[in-house]
Amino acid sequence: MSTELPSDPEESPPAPRPAPREVWKKGGRLLSVLLAVNVLLLACTLISGGAFNKVAVYDTDVFALLTTMLLLALLWILFYLLGTARCPGGVPYRDAHAGPIWLRGGLVLFGICTLVMDVFKTGYYSSFLECQSAIKILYPLTQAVFVIVQTYFLWVSAKDCVHTHLDLTRCGLMFTLTTNLAIWMAAVVDESLHQAHSHSSSHSNTSHTRLALDLERASSAVGGECSCDTAVCQIFQQGYFYLYPFNIEYSLFASTMLYVMWKNVGRLLASSTHGHSHAPSPLSLFRETFFAGPVLGLMLFVVGLAVFIIYEVQVSGERGRTQQALVIYYSFNIVCLGLMTLVSLSGSVIYRFDRRAMDQHKNPTRTLDVALLMGAALGQYAISYYSIVAVVAGTPRDLLAALNLAHALLMIAQHTFQNVFIIESLHRGPPGAEPHNTAPKEPCHGLTFANLDALHTLPACPPTPRLVGPSPAGPQEASSVIVAPRSHWRRRCLKDISLFLLLCNIILWIMPAFGARPHFSNTVEVDFYGYSLWAAIVNICLPFGIFYRMHAVSSLLEVYVMS
Amino acid sequence: MSTELPSDPEESPPAPRPAPREVWKKGGRLLSVLLAVNVLLLACTLISGGAFNKVAVYDTDVFALLTTMLLLALLWILFYLLGTARCPGGVPYRDAHAGPIWLRGGLVLFGICTLVMDVFKTGYYSSFLECQSAIKILYPLTQAVFVIVQTYFLWVSAKDCVHTHLDLTRCGLMFTLTTNLAIWMAAVVDESLHQAHSHSSSHSNTSHTRLALDLERASSAVGGECSCDTAVCQIFQQGYFYLYPFNIEYSLFASTMLYVMWKNVGRLLASSTHGHSHAPSPLSLFRETFFAGPVLGLMLFVVGLAVFIIYEVQVSGERGRTQQALVIYYSFNIVCLGLMTLVSLSGSVIYRFDRRAMDQHKNPTRTLDVALLMGAALGQYAISYYSIVAVVAGTPRDLLAALNLAHALLMIAQHTFQNVFIIESLHRGPPGAEPHNTAPKEPCHGLTFANLDALHTLPACPPTPRLVGPSPAGPQEASSVIVAPRSHWRRRCLKDISLFLLLCNIILWIMPAFGARPHFSNTVEVDFYGYSLWAAIVNICLPFGIFYRMHAVSSLLEVYVMS
């Protein structure tokens, strides 16, 4: 949610007299940030107002605003694709770090899920067309068109460093970014209301009935006097709530890519070939690991899926089984988080012996990645600290409280050490960047040879150095054969570590994203803070926690490819 | 509240191979940021938990945590002053931009007020010593010692670029920063409770009595079974609540200075004399204006004070007079904000004709200043947008609603244009940096002469060019006498503008800081959002708004001196 400020004077090359264009860079940035802040605050006001049903802001107002924003952003994207991008000299440079393939791939994947969600939503609202405002059907349709156009736009233009229509492009990018964030906020609010609604229907005998009923009224107000009682309508309704996580991720993915494009507007790159990340051939991807990481990760993934299904089945049953489900859930999470903490720590230890140079080049994508990792972790940190205070100060000291405490503490440790590992990894150069202080300058990268004579007996620059097969080996060659894998051993370990962490992050993403809420099944925090306060804390912080997992997965994929 | 991330690769000089120290800079930063985030979240959890009296966190827990943090920070400061700073080569560079005199002066001023507050607090809690926990008296005493030591430390060391004990210094600075932020949070929460308490006592006939009574119980819980009924105790209690704004500002001032010190740890400066801001002689300070700015500003200041006093007196009376007080308050604010908007705009227009080069040097102080201006403005933006939605969607369309709407719109405009003006000003170089493209390179700065011959007849480099007195003037000299003030006219205007804005910001700071809350006297928003939601919005956002005014004043002072 932090608006980046147009305030870093390091942007400009440290030339004695920068060109006047640099002045305008700042002015344009300031202008577009101000535009974005104002639009975003207006959207935020309306969306949060619409969420409280005591407040006389109707959801049709929110839908109208969002539809208008979508249409305006659509207009600008079309202008960019047809006008700015086709200008001669409009896009002289392309930032090789921006829009990597997994980010664009994820965008397309989530975009498709969002389209399915839009179909479900349209179907749901069409079921009672006669007693609905037309804007409620118009909104998912507009969103579908927007998603298609924006995904194409980002796929094609994510790497662009635009140099024409500077101010217009900055404002357009910021406005599109704001639109995505507004959609994200609306989805988070909608999902929270739905969550509170399902909480109230399962716990309607508790004291929170009043608030829960309020929320129920709010979320069922979409029906007005008509109710959703046909089977098709029910399926549509259930379906679109399950697809919300994808819509949320889509908006965040698009936002990060738009932000990087915004940072790159008017940027001068030394040469367009600078910093091409080396693309490994897909065949060699899995040969470079010890298989321990992926195997262990996959095992945890499968066990985690089973635990998640057991949890979801049992928690909707009676009270005793909820208790049991929570014990299973927490135990699995404690094991998983403990292993991840240890593995991240060992990764950091390996880096202490790594001699690759730190990459100090300017790289807005990486800067943003690091900022997002640190910022998104705050959500889970906050939930954990509130849990710790509740457990330590609260009265019941049973098994569940102990598990909850261990879970919260490990969550903090895991986020911390994983962030340290990922950030350190992202700042390492590619394997070729290892400084050859002692070894002679050789085109064969990534190897330090103990025996210099042995160098010439090796095949010329093997793409992935490995044990040389059955060849006549003298005593000189033997030494190189022994020493070369020792350096390689580190890289393999790092690849194993990143794959293991990646798989663990996926399963830890699936659980909350598809509706596991031990925060509410477990009564410790609800009793300590009261339902409304605790719901506010969880509903604000958990989306960041979920986003953290997604983002960690994409960063770990980058670490895996780069190490 | 944004934790700065250790992610800007622009830090390092663009040398082909930076020294290994640069690697450690990032590691140390990451470590200290993680420490700060964790401590801050723990403090945040306890403080927010303590604020809700349904939650079983007692204020003694909060006081114990804060006292521990104060003592630890104190220990580190003493270690720094006696150890690190005295190391040979420990502080090789000093950042000339950091800790300018007005910031340090403000720190001392607010520090003294905080000390007075601590005396009042100690007196208040001593009044019922027998039925209080000892920690409640220990806390203000520890705070007083901390304020004295920290103020001395920042006065002496604000400009230091430390180069020994790097990691320890970073962690120490971040921990001290966190301590200040925790004190700030505790003060804001305490003040909000007090505000809600006084609201409840003046509006106890409304429907919000339940919540208000809850809050009253919470804030009067400090007394336990003892009550504060002696005259001295009452004075102490009233006094320390009036001094809270100063404590809040002290913590924020100290935080910004600590942050700049943290950014400067391990920084290499080209030379220690680089960037010395030119210090104008105090005598010439006021001669360089047209007096229109300061005079108009002072008039508004005096009128504002009168309006504030009338408002405070009338609003505590019956309902009809509250209405009248609000009309006066809003009218004054609308006039003041309108004038400020126009003046900021004209300042920006003047810059369009200014030919001074933009200063593109790296300057953490300025980067932070800009970020704080933009970030703190968000608080007032948010309040304004919520007001606008309430007024537009709400039912009553009377004079007060119209005034409220105009006030909110002008508030947004004023913050926007003032920020644009200040940010543009801060990025201008000092007057000497004007590029002499057409004029010959002369040591006499800031002047462009139409008649080159006239140059030699002027006295050598006058410190402030002015009309030459009764001296025998030929036709050549006359032209220089006419043209020289034309260039000077812009600088005078800018000085007038900054002084005017400065005085207006002071009066707009005084009003909310000393308790004017039209947000609650005016019933539009309270009725629209409900008391608790609106109180949450205002109590979270208004401290940022108040800080914005303070910060704008210090930035405008810098603009005044530099232009």
UniProtKB/TrEMBL annotation, chains A, B:
InterPro entries: Otopetrin (IPR004878). The chain crosses the membrane at residues 30-50, 62-81, 101-117, 137-156, 250-270, 290-311, 327-351, 371-393, 497-516, 528-548. Keywords: Cell membrane, Hydrogen ion transport, Ion channel, Ion transport, Membrane, Transmembrane, Transmembrane helix, Transport. GO terms for molecular function: proton channel activity. Its main location: membrane. It is found in: Cell membrane. GO terms for cellular component: plasma membrane. It is a multi-pass membrane protein. Belongs to the otopetrin family. This is Proton channel OTOP2. It comes from Odocoileus virginianus. The lineage of its organism: Eukaryota, Metazoa, Chordata, Craniata, Vertebrata.
